[in-house]
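Z., the sequence and structure:
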Amino acid sequence: MKANKKDAVRSLWDRYKYVVLVILAGVALLAWPSGSREKEGPAAAPATAEEPTLEQTEERMQSILSKISGAGNLTLMLTLDSTGEKALAQDTELSYSGATEAPEDYQRRSETVVLSESGGGEGAIITKSTCPVYRGALVVCEGGANPEVKLALTQAVAALTGLSSDRITVVRCQ
């Protein structure tokens, strides 16, 4: 009986020994410390990425679009349908007064959840972030009369903003 159990264990080990060794190696690598554990100062605190303004987005897109062959000197104007929004985590407390079956009055208190960072700073926790929605785009450039340039600019603006081509106008400047 004991010999059968030994043989069964040995056959399982022979069959799955490499799988077990790979799993053990993976666990060892996950447990291995990575990087240095030096004390992080304020310079090492994670930077909060600020959303670019509409003007910054226009300037960045202008510099990129002006590099399209044949576009030349270029000016871009974007219009917004809605701006991007950020929803912050809230800690809400609701208290009732009176009987539990039919409360007479209630009070609601809500606070924004703030995360303390190692550098001594604080930052709100963002639970949802939406990007701005563009309404339309106007591109005025020297090569705006050329259909190939028009198509390339329209496709580039559509790719960068999510606008359909009927909401993008490309014209030639004087």
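Helices lie at 2-31, 54-65, 147-161. The longest strand covers residues 103-112.

Let me know what you think.
H.
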